[in-house]
Specification:
CATH class of the largest domain: Mainly Alpha
Shape: elongated
Number of helices: 9
CATH superfamily of the largest domain: RNA polymerase sigma factor, region 2, helix turn helix motif
GO molecular function: DNA binding; sigma factor activity
Distance between the termini: 43 Å
Structural class: mainly alpha
Family: Belongs to the sigma-70 factor family. ECF subfamily.
Domain RNA polymerase sigma-70 region: 26-92
Keywords: Sigma factor, Transcription, Transcription regulation
Number of domains: 2
Order of helices and strands: HHHHHHHHH
InterPro entries: RNA_pol_sigma-70-like, RNA_pol_sigma-70_dom, RNA_pol_sigma70_r2, RNA_pol_sigma70_r4_t2, RNA_pol_sigma_r2, RNA_pol_sigma_r3/r4-like, WH-like_DNA-bd_sf
Number of strands: 0
Radius of gyration: 18 Å
Length: 188
């Protein structure tokens, strides 16, 4: 089995046995996702960088206790969320604007379509940021991190039914906000 095809769980087993190369492989696979998640949770690239690195130190420490009840990516995002919330409680810092990160143009589109997408994406990000934290988090995990309802429940430590309810109300609020701002459904 090559490193590229080795499962995350197999890599965690290797980490539990002290294999530093397995930590590096998991870092390469999951660092960007963990980092983006923490940036959205904290609003700070600097905090996200520190927390993302701490998540992989925690992976090293906790690998022997990993029971495999969830996907490794879900487990890592749960660790990241806990660390982000802990740090936010302890520390206040200047917040940054994520609009630049949300405006990556698609080179296949015309400049007009790119502008329309950028405008709608920025508006959508503002509307998501305005949601209550419990709704914002489920939207972020589902749409920006591709987590399933079950995985979101595991990351947040809440029942699946609660995740579904929060998703329903978050989408409803986003739809109302987009409609009120004059945006059509769908993407340009």
């Amino acid at each position: 089995m090559t490193a590229a095809t080795e499962t995350d769980r197999a890599l965690v087993d290797r980490v539990a046995k002290g294999d530093r190369a397995a930590v590096r492989l998991l870092f390469m696979r999951h660092h960007a996702r963990v980092y983006r998640f923490v940036v959205r949770q904290t609003g700070s690239e600097m905090m996200a960088d520190d927390i993302a690195n701490e998540v992989f130190l925690e992976l090293w420490r906790q690998a022997p206790g990993f029971e495999g009840r969830s996907e490794v990516s879900t487990w890592l995002l749960g660790i990241a969320r806990f660390k982000a919330l802990s740090l936010l409680r302890k520390k206040k810092e200047d917040w940054i604007d994520d609009d630049d990160a949300a405006q990556v143009p698609d080179s296949a589109d015309t400049p007009e379509v790119v502008t329309m997408k950028d405008d709608k994406a920025a508006a959508l990000r503002r509307f998501i940021d305005a949601l209550p934290e419990e709704h914002r988090t489920v939207i972020d995990l589902a749409y920006y991190h591709g987590q399933s309802v079950t995985e979101i429940g595991e990351v947040l430590g809440i029942p699946v039914a609660t995740v579904k309810t929060r998703m329903f109300y978050a989408r409803k609020k986003l739809g109302q906000a987009l409609k009120a701002a004059g945006y059509d459904k769908g993407w340009p």
